[in-house]
Write a structure and sequence with these properties.
The chain has 360 residues and is of the alpha/beta class. It is built from 10 helices and 15 strands. Strands 1-15-14-13-4-5-6-7-8-9-12-11-10 form a 13-stranded mixed β-sheet. A two-stranded antiparallel ribbon has the order 2-3. The chain starts with 6 loop residues before the first strand and ends with a helix.
Length: 360
């Protein structure tokens, strides 16, 4: 496993708090928390392994990966995802990593979930390095769309950030997804001071010219090295200022809802226009509207990206728990979600697991 795990909570079969919506144990009931939020968006990490070594995520030498026996099997992943959809009100499923394309069973997992649910939206967050080989199979299996992590369209900058000279493979993967009909394409970019912080306008133009929606994401305290500092982070205000200095930028006027990105209309002035998102997880938190829950590759429920505790569903699966017991334990794990991530609190502690072991 990557580093020392956060505290794992082994939950008994719960008695649900009386303030939850009335439901029989094991019945259909949403993943509500005590602050009135309901999780409908499930992020599923399929592996902690990755074929890049992005400087803001992990050291150059990589990490100690999870042992194979710790990782959920394909059947275990499908069982939990389907329970989430059929019994807990999950409407969106995002497969993440590490890098999910290195998971051999990815296509079959997508196919099995789609066979059980025609309505759920399924997407993938990926670096796209293997997407040129798998886009057609993923489309046939029922994947709806992809989010691609791409921090630069300059080959030299890309190689510096990722420690791999693979930008051409990422671009080829994005183009293959478009050809396979896995759209819309969303591009996720993190700006790093002194590396790519001057490249925001060209990333915007490149994305809009191709019909992709670019989303800038503030760097979060989730690196394996625990080297993140607020002072070094490029803020949402700085990102917008760099765009406003070049383009016409204004809010798109649509309700944000539970979406993490604030969306803006960008007009370059020469016929290129579209929407760009800014996700200010640190300086513009959206915790009050959060509708996400996470499942790690080793079967732990994390009710917040920055949670310091986890609830073990893998042990329930492998211990012979019934579907009723599993969904009730999952509900209890969600009920304890904190009101916010608390990054501004002096007592804030970064999660022990890095992003690659949590999943985005």
């Amino acid at each position: 496993m990557s580093g020392v795990a956060d505290e794992v909570v082994h939950l008994p079969v719960p008695t649900l708090p009386s303030s939850l919506p009335p439901t029989a144990l094991g019945g259909a009931s949403p993943l509500a928390d005590q602050h009135g939020r309901v999780a409908t968006d499930l992020r599923v990490s399929l592996t902690d392994r990755c074929n890049l070594r992005c400087s803001y995520c992990m050291p150059a030498e990589g990490l100690d990966w999870m042992a194979t026996e710790q990782t959920l099997t394909d059947d275990e992943v499908v069982r939990l995802v389907v329970l989430g959809i059929e019994r807990l009100g999950i409407r969106e499923v995002r497969f993440t990593g590490g890098e999910p394309l290195v998971r051999r069973g990815l296509v079959d997992i997508v196919r099995q979930v789609r066979e059980r649910s025609a309505e759920v939206e399924m997407s993938l967050t990926t670096n796209a390095l293997g997407l040129a080989r798998t886009a057609d199979a993923l489309a046939e299996a029922g994947l709806d769309r992809v989010n691609v992590s791409l921090d630069s369209i300059r080959a030299e900058t890309y190689a510096t950030i990722t420690r791999r000279d693979r930008m051409h493979d990422a671009i080829a993967g994005i183009e293959a997804a478009v050809a396979a009909g896995i759209t819309p394409i969303k591009i996720n970019a993190v700006l790093l001071r002194g590396l790519n912080d001057t490249e925001a306008p060209e990333l915007v133009r490149w994305s809009l010219e191709r019909g992709y929606e670019l989303r800038f994401i503030e760097q979060m305290p989730l690196d394996a090295q625990h080297a993140w500092t607020r002072e070094h982070m490029i803020t949402a205000d700085e990102i917008l200022a760099s765009l406003e200095a070049v383009y016409d930028v204004r809010p798109d006027g649509e309700a944000r809802g539970s979406a993490p990105a604030e969306r803006f209309l960008v007009d370059t002035g020469d016929g290129v226009a579209g929407r760009v998102g800014v996700i200010g997880s640190v300086t513009r938190p959206f915790c009050g509207d959060c509708d996400r829950v996470r499942l790690t590759a080793d079967g732990q429920v994390r009710n917040c990206l920055f949670a310091r505790t986890e609830s073990d569903l893998r042990a329930s699966l492998r211990g012979g728990a019934s579907d009723d017991e599993i969904v009730d334990r999952w509900r209890t794990a969600m009920w304890g979600k904190a009101p916010g991530h608390g990054i501004d609190d002096p007592s804030f502690l970064q999660p022990t697991r890095p992003m690659s072991a949590i999943g985005g």
